[in-house]
Specification:
With about 600 residues, the protein is of the alpha/beta class. Helix content is about 30%, strand content about 20%. The structure holds nicotinamide-adenine-dinucleotide (NAD) and 3-phosphoglyceric acid. Belongs to the D-isomer specific 2-hydroxyacid dehydrogenase family.
Length: about 600
């Protein structure tokens, strides 16, 4: 990709088939259940069920027109800039999505105030340090960002600040406008031949490095997570933090603000730098201890600094740092080019609309990454997983006592070739939703389980045979609970249900120790009886008389004329009286109705 093209990059609209294997999964999102009997069924994995016919998107900071146009095709768009925190909290309960830049704090109160309606937060830019990700995850709200469209703009601004600082452009400009002509005062330093250290060799850092090399600088970088061969490919050596500090003439900062990078440049690290070093920061203000920087400037360790970002934005007018003669400042303009803002607006609008539609989000920040092809393959198993979770918990007496669940995946695939995070999330959804008002999705499943003290142990059984299908069967067991259907308790004392996918359709294949075979759609009646002729007919006619349509029926028995379990798939919910009539059939010993 040419660097000039990068700033106007558009994120293509994402469909399952167009995603690469590194595409972060979905959060959200609806996955079509390929069921011949229910072809129109949409299956929501994550966030976006229950949306009104036209969702509402609150755009809380200025967004490029092209992005707004895209949003308006799909949603009601409310552009409300400069909201106070209170106003944002008031508005948010009426919104399905929120789009912000770096100027809006999307904190816990915002998620709390949304009362569960907010499904997606779109950050029109890279840094998500203004969004409380744990709160978003807790509330099952997907966070997406626009990570590529402003890369070049930020890199160009870094280079602009470095050159302007080295030649005192801002100071000389102010001086001349004040009526002075100070040619001797503003003698600068050259860039050519100087060592530039790039701290954070990601998208922006590497573009800065590329450009600085073009200016004849010697460029080295420190980034504990960057690949050395990627750096080498553009002629940059990765060095240790200590070496970086000790050799730099210029240091340009390009890491995210995280607990690990907060105040990374401080009194101690400034003391390790060469006297007269120059610092450029277009990353985040918080990566520098600003008071320590003032001390380093005063002592001459740091000759000059050029800053686009600040710990508090806007910084106070009388801040010593801002007013320092050797400091050049801009008001967080790194991403502010027409091209970048247009690109960011399109990138974020596409991500938010896609998320609201239930498509995959390539830029999800708080959802696990599951490659798209894995998702496609797992679709029917995803449905199976949720239904098994739901059946298992409905079989327990008093669902709130469910604390320990064991999930067993039997597969011919090696464990490394089977990603079960999505399945686990769906089992958790199935286990929790029928017994609570919590909405569980891929974003918040593990968190919600932990909050409820629900332990999920996963086990894999490696089968012989062809690994053509990802899974042979899934088994869900709940320990230490009683069941309202005693036959669901296995020999080892747990509630046990097992299922598999047949011709793309999920089936229940085992309840307790009984083999059954019923397609998991509609609802199910499980009925234990003494195995004898005519039972299917008797139960079937009670249901027929009450106009309840049977979609599937299967009987599993221990041995002829001994106990048997009948699994009956029904399209309609039978009335209590109907169930009572079945229970009154002499050979029937117990029965339970389970909603799917
Ligand atoms: N000023 C602006 O307007 C503007 C515009 C765009 C991006 N940014 C900021 O620039 C920064 C970089 O953005 P990006 O798109 O290149 O992100 P990126 O994720 O592509 O790159 C960040 C890099 O920092 C590295 N890193 C993480 N911890 C580190 C550490 N302790 N030491 C050194 N490196 C570390 C990561 O490995 C990664 O390679 C972010 O803070 C972003 O918010 C600012
Ligand atoms: O992280 C980013 O993308 C930049 O800091 C840009 O922030 P902005 O969208 O507020 O300009």
């Amino acid at each position: 990709m040419s660097t000039s093209a990068a700033s106007t990059l558009r994120t293509p609209s994402l469909k399952l088939s167009s995603l690469s294997s590194r595409t972060p999964l979905p959060s959200a999102f609806s996955v079509s259940f390929n069921d011949k009997r229910a072809p129109s069924r949409r299956y929501v994995i994550v966030a976006c069920s229950g949306l009104p016919s036209k969702p509402t998107v609150l755009v809380a900071e200025k967004l490029g027109e092209a992005g707004l146009d895209l949003l308006k095709e799909f949603a009601n768009v409310d552009c409300a800039y400069n909201l106070s925190p209170e106003e944002l909290c008031t508005k948010i309960s009426l919104c399905d999505a929120l789009i912000v830049r770096s100027g809006t704090k999307v904190n816990r109160e915002v998620f709390e105030s949304s009362s569960g309606r907010l499904k997606v937060v779109g950050r029109a830019g890279v840094g998500i340090d203004n969004v409380d990700l744990s709160a978003a995850t807790e509330f099952g709200c997907l966070v997406v960002n626009a990570p590529t469209a402003n890369t070049v703009a930020a890199a160009e601004h870094g280079i602009a600040l470095m050159a302007a600082m080295a030649r005192n452009v801002a100071q000389a400009d102010a001086s001349i406008k004040a009526g002075k002509w100070q040619r001797n005062k503003y003698v600068g330093v050259s860039l050519v031949g100087k060592t530039l250290v790039v701290l954070g060799f990601g998208k922006v850092g590497s573009e800065v490095a590329r450009r600085a090399k073009g200016l004849g600088m010697h460029v080295i970088a420190h980034d504990p997570y960057a690949a050395a061969d990627r750096a080498r490919a553009i002629g940059v050596e990765l060095v240790s933090f200590e070496e970086a500090l000790a050799t730099a003439d210029f240091i340009s900062l390009h890491m995210p603000l995280t607990p690990a990078t907060s105040k990374m440049l401080n009194d101690e690290t400034f003391a390790k730098m060469k006297k007269g070093v120059r610092i450029i920061n277009v990353a985040r203000g918080g990566v520098i201890d600003e008071e320590a920087l003032v001390r380093a400037l005063d002592s001459g360790i740091v000759a000059q600094a050029a800053l686009d970002v600040f710990t508090v934005e806007p910084p106070s007018k009388d801040s010593k740092l801002i007013q320092h003669e050797n400091v050049t400042v801009t008001p967080h303009l790194g991403a502010s080019t027409k091209e970048a803002q247009e690109g960011v607006a399109i990138e974020i609008a596409e991500a938010v609309v896609g998320a609201l539609k239930g498509e995959l989000a390539a830029t999800a920040v708080n959802a696990p990454m599951v490659p798209a092809e894995v998702l496609t393959e797992l679709k029917p198993y995803v449905v199976l997983a949720e239904k098994l979770g739901s059946l298992a918990v409905q079989l327990a007496t008093g669902g709130s006592g469910v604390k320990s669940v064991k999930v067993t995946y039997a597969s011919s695939r090696a464990p490394d070739d089977l990603d079960t995070r999505l399945l686990r999330a769906m089992i958790i959804k199935g286990l929790i939703e029928p017994i609570s008002s919590v909405f569980v999705n891929l974003v918040n499943a593990d968190y919600t389980a932990k909050q409820r003290g629900l332990r999920i142990a996963e086990e894999r059984i490696l089968l012989d045979g062809s690994p053509e299908n990802p899974l042979e069967c899934i088994q869900v067991q709940i320990a230490n609970v009683e069941s309202k259907f005693a036959s669901a308790i296995s020999d080892s004392g747990e509630i046990k249900v097992e299922g598999r996918v047949k011709d793309g359709v999920p089936h229940l294949t085992k309840v307790g120790s009984f083999e059954v075979d019923v397609s998991l759609e509609g609802s199910i009646i499980l009925c234990r009886q003494v195995d004898q002729p005519g039972m299917i007919g008797k139960v079937g006619s009670v249901l027929g008389e009450e106009n309840v349509n049977v979609s599937f029926m299967s009987v599993g028995r221990i041995a002829p004329r001994k106990q048997a379990v009948m699994a009956i798939g029904v399209d309609e919910q039978p009335t209590k009286e109907t169930l009572k009539k079945i229970g009154n059939i002499p050979a029937v010993e117990e029965l339970v109705f389970l909603k799917l």
